[in-house]
Amino acid sequence: MGSGQRQFEQMVRAFSADLYRYAIRLCRDRFDAEDLLQEAFARAWKAWPELRDLAAAKAWIFAILRNEHARRFAKKRISVVDDEFDESEFPSAPSSVAGLEIEQLFGMLPLTYREPLLLQVLGGFSCSEIASMLGTTEGAVMTRLTRARQALRSELRCAEPRKSAR
Amino acid sequence: MNCLEFRRLKLADPRRLTGAARTHANACAGCFAFAQRVDESEALLERALMVPVPEGLADRILLRQTDAIRPRRRVFALAAGVVFAVAAGAIVLTITPSNDAARLAIEHVLNEPESLTTFRNAESPLFHSIVHAFGGEIKEPLGRVRYVKLCPVEKGTGWHIVLETPQGLATLILVPDQHITAPESATVAGWSARAEPTRRGYYAVVTGSEGTTSLVHRLIEERIQWNT
C-alpha cells in the first residue's frame, strides 16, 4: 500500500463518522447520506494528488461533500445569503412543539443558519474555516451562528413552560 | 471587553473563546452564568446531532475506493452491482404505479425502524392537538399513541405517529400543505400503505399487510372527522 493510499485510508477512518452525520442532515435520508459520502470520497480520491496540506484534509473533504450535495440534490449552489436576515425567516413553532427535542427545533432552522452550525458542532471548524467553505466572510458566519443559537435557545425556553404545564 | 461583545463571541463559537473573553467571564457573574447556559444547550445540540453511524461505514467506503484502484476487484464489484441492481429491481417491481405519497410513507417507515420499537412523545393530548391542527377531530380513540415525531419529508415536514390499534401497530403520517388528488396505495418490501387526501394535505397509513392497512384506514375514517 502506497503512502498516499495509507493517508487516504486514515482520512476515511478519521472523518467518515462526522461526515456521515453532516450528510444525513443535508440529505435527511440515511441511504442518500451514505451514497453522498461514497461519492464525496470517490471524488476526494481522484483529487488526492492535488491536496497539498494534509492538515487541511478535513475541511477539504467536508467542502467536497457539500459541493457534491449541492450538485446532486439541489442542482445548484447552496445560496449564500447576505448578513442581513429577516427574523421572520424563522418558521413559527407549532403549538404542539412542546415535548419535542432540540433536534426537531434544529431541523426548523433555515438552511443558512443550520449549515454553519452543523459545520461547527459536527466538524469542529472555526468561523474563519466555515467562511472559506461557504464562500462568505467570517463576520457573516459569526452572525449566522449567533442567530442560530439565539433561535434555538429561544425556542427551548418557549417549549419548557408548555412542557411542564402539561 | 464588554458583556455584549462577550455574549456575541460565546454564541458564535462557544468553544473558542479568546483570552480576553475568558477573563471577562471570570470577572462577570452574569456572563459566567450565560456561558454556562450556552454550554448546556450546546451539549444538548451535540448529543442530538450525534446520530448513530452505520456499522462498517468506513470499511465500505474504503472497499469501494480501493476497488477503483485495484482492477482485479472490479469483476467482483461488477457482480455485486448486478446483484444489487436485480434486488433493487425486484423491490421496485412490487411498487404499485402512481403511488408516490403512499410509497414515500413506506420508505419513511423503513428509514425510521426505531419508530416501531420505541416510545417517544407517547401522549394522547399531543396526538389530538396535531390531528386538530390538521383539520381533524378525534371522535373516538384510535388506540394507544406510542410515537410522535415531527419529521422531514419530501418538500417539508410531516408528523410521524405510531399507534397501537386493535389491528396491531400502525403508522400514520400526516403531511400538511402537500396535496394528492386521489387515494393512493402502495406495497413495498412487504409493507402496505394507503394515502388519502384531506383539505389540509394528506395522510398515509402504513402497516405490515394490505388487510391491516385497509382496516386501520376504515378505523380512521370512522373515528376522525375531517372538518376543514
Characterize the biggest β-sheet of chain A.
none
Distance between the termini of chain B: 56 Å
Give the oligomeric state: heterodimer
The secondary-structure element order of chain A is: HHHHHHH
Low-pLDDT segments of chain A: 76-99
Whole-number tally of structural domains of chain B: 2
Tell me the overall shape of chain B: elongated
Q: Please tally the helical runs of chain B, counting DSSP H or I stretches of 4 or more residues.
A: 8
What order do the SSEs of chain B take from the amino end to the carboxyl end, as H and E? HHHHHHHEEEEEEEHE
Overall mean confidence score, pLDDT of chain B: 82
In angstroms, what is the radius of gyration of chain A? 18 Å
Structural class of chain B: alpha+beta
Q: Biggest interface and its residues per chain?
A: A-B, 54 and 42 residues
Largest sheet, strands/sense/barrel of chain B: 6 strands, antiparallel
Strand order of the largest sheet of chain B: 2-3-4-7-6-5
- Find the count of extended strands of chain B (DSSP E, 2+ residues): 8
Topology:
The complex is a heterodimer of chains A (166) and B (228).
Chain A: H1 3-27, H2 30-46, H3 57-74, H4 102-107, H5 111-121, H6 127-134, H7 138-165
Helix pairs in contact in A: 1-2, 1-3, 2-3, 3-6, 5-7, 6-7
Chain B: H1 3-12, H2 19-27, H3 29-49, H4 57-69, H5 74-93, H6 100-111, H7 124-133, E1 136-138, E2 144-153, E3 156-165, E4 168-176, E5 184-188, E6 191-198, E7 201-207, H8 210-223, E8 224-226
